[in-house]
Every structure is written in structure tokens, then in C-alpha cells.
Amino acid sequence: MNASEGAVTPMMAQYLEIKGRYPDALLFYRMGDFYEMFFDDAEAAAAALDIALTKRGQHLGRDIPMCGVPVHAAEGYLLTLIRKGFRVAIAEQMEDPAEAKKRGSKSVVARDVVRLVTPGTLTEDSLLDARRHNFLAAWAEVRDDAALAWVDISTGEFRVIACPTARLAPELARLAPSELVVSEAKDIDLGGLVSEFGVALAPLSRGSFDSAGAESRLCGVFGVAALDAFGLFDRAELSAMGAIVEYLNLTQRGKLPLLRPPVKEAPGGTVQIDAATRRNLEITQAMSGGRDGSLIAAIDRTVTAGGARLLERRLSAPSRELPEIRSRIDAVGFLVGEVRLADSLRGDLKQVPDMDRALSRLALDRGGPRDIAAIRSGLAVAGRIADRLPGDAPDRLREATTGLRGHEDLVAYLDAALVADPPLLARDGGFIAAGHNAELDEARQLRDEGRGVIARMQSEYAEQSGIQSLKIKHNNVLGYFIETTATHADKMLSAPLNETFIHRQTTANQVRFSTVALSEMETKILNSGNLALEIEKRLYDGLKTMIMDASALITQAAHALSEIDLTAAFADLARNDDWSEPQVDDSRAFAVEGGRHPVVERALRRTGEQFIANDCLLTEADTPAIWLLTGPNMAGKSTFLRQNALIALLAQAGSFVPARRARIGLVSQIFSRVGAADDLARGRSTFMVEMVETAAILNQADDHALVILDEIGRGTATYDGLSIAWAVLEHLHDVNRARALFATHYHEMTALAAKLDSVENATVAVKEWEGEVIFLHEVRKGAADRSYGVQVARLAGLPAKVVERAKVVLEALEKGEREGGTRKHALIDDLPLFNAVPAAAPAPPKGPSKLEQRLSTLHPDEMTPMQALAALYDLKSELKE
């Protein structure tokens, strides 16, 4: 293409017109087998995708930058662009190029955008993580009310919750949506939320959030006159849901996904967990950013994609409804006891495809024969699982069973209609089973066996005419024709054969004829390939319609399979990892015996090490609500804190827990402040981050909360930090009255146990042996006598000279602290830290100790038990000397 300066070619005019409607998106402009990009789009895409940037003609006197990607490989490039924050508008050819040429040689093929690809509107398997949801959310404010709605268009799940501004961050942390739709007129700054949660903002016009229009829009989507059957929604909730539907209309170009009726969540129905706590506890994502090292990675035993997504939802939002929790735990307990049943269920579940996402792709016309086959396979397995579950199963499992039955007719029809392993795309054909449709079978026979059909006709005509030398041949002029020698011409031209055979051509030695049947067969053979494909496409549409008509029941079955999968997965985890059934009640008790950290225990198991279990007893009978935990670094304080929070979370998610015994009084909120880092993007130091998180806890925690705090005040001067930590603990005790584990290095705080009724000291035990510190990882009642910081530094690998010098400084500081007064002021003179002569390296040991010498003479394999016991007593007496 070449354009003179100031001129615009028709194709480029079309491109610019379409691009003008989508200024904020990269435009994939279909040209044959490629999606092309031009101008700024080309430069941005070439850099993001690391592909060649070329040029194509000129526009306004300048070269037009261009790059492109093959249509067949477009999904991979789309994924890269979406992950890098781009939105992509896909403009397809809307007519056959041959049709465009009929309008003139310079006519441009009609093109239009068929879809706007954004982070929250993905449906393709290659663009999604099968085991995680991909939520699109919308937040709306109407007067004094606000609400958050969210949808996963790949599964159809649609929910809404009342969400004032203060609750927006915790809810986004829970859902981790890919995209958040907000009003262009929004006057509050949401940029901080975007940077914190990595969610892409999608502004919409104020009219898209109009609650009256939203109600009408929602009624149209669900085909109802009013939304009352789904619940009572306030104006803000309608506004948020309506905005999502409007956004889907815009991005999907009017072809809405299959949305389930909206579900209104109660704000107090799940445990409140803020963003900082989720990061600290590493529930679904490790601090390193990946899934490895997180709680969900350590405990996920699900075998279906739907079950994995359900597990993520349960861990992200543990229930606060006691009947719901007990129902889940009872179902797990049943399968823990029914080992053979549980194993057979898991064997069946491994064959279950992702029906939710297959159904969604079919609804959006992005599916194919394999999605229909996925529905068939999933429903077939559902029937087998329903037959396996006994009548005495807990209510939760029996209720799930009802959703698995009643699909026999649909499965039988799909089984008869589809081949065992259909192709991915309908346009490839070959997915309808032989014998399902007579017209298709005939077309395929003609396509695949045309020569055989012609040979049979030749035999029939030879028998009818009595001319055994008769042949059916083909050329490009006559097509198929019947040929005989000239000696038989009179017979063929005479009655009664002339009524069947129509003369076409006479040559020197042959006479050629045709018949009506042969002409019809020729047409059928020539068109049989296209005809077979058209018939298959028609049958595919029929199968898709049949499935969409049953979509509600299919969704119910998919949900039931996910529920059974998660229950069986929790049971498998409990059996194989020795987890116990928790007792969850509406008290404030928190009694854990032999508790373990599931992630740390799993890591230790790989190395053959054993995890040291510990008890935690809060607010049961006369016990305190707060443990003040002291002990050195590396002794396991942070692990102990986190494991108890995770045990509470797992219990209310409906799982067994890593402990010998656990009684959990319902936890309303879990707060964790363990470790901190600078937040440079918002200009916050480590200490500022720590104080912001601590303030959030003290302002929100109620008397049913579980709070774990580690090293409050460590980011500032010693006395400032001690005073802050002291005041924080008093506030938790007197005002919040929450259950809490409070770890600190400020040993002065252990005095609070005598002052505050509900505070008790606990410590992580260590043992010293010949100058070495041995971490026992055991939590005991009482207070640590010191921090062992110098010993830990030695273990960390500090040079020996530094460690020895630190010991000298520590002794001097502790002596000054004891003497007080003028001794403190003289300390700097006695201890010139920056002018100190390096201490001499410690003298190497002169040789083995007397005890070591004695041990070297003993040979246990050659001793009798009595001799070994006598030797042990001798060694003990020598040790006392």
C-alpha cells in the first residue's frame, strides 16, 4: 500500500475509523491469516511481544509502523498483552473477500470489532488458570450506600455485597479481581487500590451506573419481570450489578455470557480478613508472589478444576455460620471413615472435565465439539457418583447427589451424537458419530467413497443395458458420463434404453451418454465435502441449543461435583496428614492441642525432619485470652503465631485441622501483623507500615476476633517501641478484649501478666550447650530470660571477631543497665565502639575433653546391656566432677 501525502487509502480509512472507537485498546485488525497492528499500536505491541516492527506504506507523508501475529497463534500473544496491562479490540472480517470484490476492485472487506479482550473478560482455557477464578468486579456508590458486585464470566458466578469505602480494600483482597469497573465520575482516588491489588481499572460512564436502568437491564438478562425472586437489592447493589452487565455488553459486543442469577452475600457471613493478614498468612499466595509456599498449595488435594476453585473460595472467605461449618465438617468426617468410598469417588472425579467453563464458552459461541463432549463426560460421571453415595451419607452429600441425577437422556443423546474424541473446532468437522444422521452419513459416503458409488452405478447400468463393456468416466468438460463403443450406439439410442440414457457426445470410436441419476450423483459428490460440513455445523447448533436449554441443571451438577471433590480432598488430607476433626461452637474458646503449621510441616517432611507440635489454650474455663510470647529469633515464634491463625481459618472453612485436638469458638475476624517492609510507592517506612496495620487492628477487632502480633514497635527507638507495644497490649486487653497471641522481644512486658487478668506469659524454649544455642521449638508457660541475639548472630555466620566483640558490648550494656545513673553516661568512654582494637580470635581447644576421651574408649556394639548401663552411670559421675 502506498499513499501520497495527505491521502488516506480506503483500508487505512477503515482502520482509523475502527481504532477511533477503541482509543484505549490495541486493535487486532484481521487481514487474511494475520491480525495486523499499525501506528502507535504496532510500536507498543512489538515492544511488549518482542516481535519485529516493520512498515506498510505511508500516511500523511510518514511511514506507517506495522506488526502482526498469526491468527492461529493469537491466543498466546493475547495472554502476554493482557498480563502486561493492555486491552485488545479484535476486528474480524465480516464478509467473504470475494463478496467485497463484487463491489469493485478497490472495495474494502467489511470489518468490525467482535470482542474487546480485557483482564476480567477472558474465557479461553489457554488464557486462564483452570484452578483459579477470574473475577470482573464493579463498585458503585448511590447516596450513602455502596456495593461491590463481581462475576466470573468463565463460570457464570454472579454475586454482590454491600461494601462501603472502608470495606473495599478487604473485599478486593478476598476476591483478587482482575478488573474493577468504576464510574468515570468517581471523585475518590482508587489508584492506591489498583497498585496494591494489581487490579485493572475500567472507567464507565455515569449512565452505566444508573440504578433504574440497571434494574431494567438485569431483568432483561435473566428474562424476568422483577428481580424479587433473586432477593431484595438496594440501589447501590443494583447499580454495581447493572454496571457489570453494561460492561459485558460493551466488551462482548452484545453477546452476553451465561450468567447465573445474582446472589446477595451477607456482610457478616464470612470471617473478616484484611489484605495485610492475607499476605502475612500466605493463604492463597506466598510472600514471594507465587502459589508455592502458600497454604492452598500445601493442602490442595482436589482433582477437578471446579473443586480447586471452590477450595480457594472457602479459604479466602471462611464461614461464620455455625450450621454451615458443621455441615461441611460432618461431610468430611463421613468420608474420612469411608476410605474405600472416598477413594472410588476420587477416582471418578479425576475424569470430570471443567463443565462450568465449557458451558460458558458454548454460551458465548467460543466453544466447540470438545466442550459438548466435556458436558457429556461430566454428566456421565455425575450419574456414577450419584449411584456410589449411600443413603446414610450426611445431608450435605445427599443434597449434592440430587443435582447429579436426571441427566441420563441428555448423556445418551450426546453419546450417540458425538464421536469419542471430537476435534477442538466445529469448522474442522468429523465430530458427529456415524449413524446419527442419515443425510450426513450419505454425504460422508459420497465424499469418502465416491469412486465406489460410481463403480456400483456402472455395474447397475451394464446389467440394465446388457453391455458389459459400458464404463463411467469423468473429464473436466462433461463431468461424469457413460461411455460405450460405437457398435452399441444403436442399442443405447433405441427404446427402452433411450428413456434412461441421454446422448451427450459421439466420437470416432465411442458414444457418450448421461442419466438424470448420474447427473444428480455428480452434483452430490462434488458438493459432498461442503455438504457434510454444513450438516455437522447444523447438528452442532442443535446440540448446543439442547445443552443451553439444560444449562441450569448442568450448572447444578457441576456445583455438586465440586462440593464432593472438595469434601473428598479434605478427607484425603485428614487421613494422610493425621489431621483431626475440630469442635467449632459459638463460644470464645480457643484450645489447640498438638497444633502444627501445615506449610512448614510439609516442607520439613520433604527433608525427613519432624515438626514439633505445640498447644495453645485461650479463653477456655479460667484461662487467659492473650498469650505474651517471648523467646529468641529463629526459635519458632512466628510459626507458632501463624499456625494457630491457620487452624482457626481451616476449621471455619470446613476442614479438619493439623492438631491432635481443637476446639474453636467462632472467630469473626483474623488479624495478623507479622513482619513488615517499606512501602516506597506510598512513601511509607517499615515502621509506618507497621503502625498503619496495627492501627487497623485496634480500630476494628471485636471480642470474637483472633489477633496475632509479632514485634510491635521494633522499627523505632527502644523506649518508643516498648511504650507502643505496652500500650497496644493494654488496648487489646481492655478495649478489644480479643483472643490474641502477642510476640515480643521486650522482656520488660512480661510484667504485664501480673497486672492484666487475661494475659499470660509463654516462651519458646531453647537450650544452651557449651556456648551453643539449641532451638527446641517448644512453647511453654513462662517468660524467656534473654533474647540470645548474639548466639543467633553467630549461627547466622557473622565473623567470630564480630560475635566476640558483641558479647563484650552486651555485657557492658547490661552492667550499665543494672548500675544505672552515672554509669550509663560513662559507658561510652569505657566502651569506645568505633575505636576498639579488634578482639583476639578465641584460642582453639587444646584437645578433646576428658569426657570425650572416655567416650572414645567405649564400643557399644561389644557391650552387654548391663555393661552399657554401668558405663552410663560412670560417665554421669565424671560429668558432675
Automatic annotation (TrEMBL):
It comes from the Bacteria. Residues 705-721 form the DNA mismatch repair proteins mutS family domain. SUPFAM superfamilies: DNA repair protein MutS, domain I, DNA repair protein MutS, domain II, DNA repair protein MutS, domain III, P-loop containing nucleoside triphosphate hydrolases. GO terms for molecular function: ATP binding; ATP-dependent DNA damage sensor activity; damaged DNA binding; mismatched DNA binding. GO terms for cellular component: cytosol. One of its GO terms (biological process) is mismatch repair. ATP binds at residues 631-638. The keyword Membrane does not apply. Keywords: ATP-binding, DNA damage, DNA repair, DNA-binding, Nucleotide-binding. PANTHER family: DNA MISMATCH REPAIR PROTEIN MSH1, MITOCHONDRIAL, DNA MISMATCH REPAIR PROTEIN MUTS FAMILY MEMBER. HAMAP family: MutS (MF_00096). This protein is involved in the repair of mismatches in DNA. It is possible that it carries out the mismatch recognition step. This protein has a weak ATPase activity. Belongs to the DNA mismatch repair MutS family. This is DNA mismatch repair protein MutS.
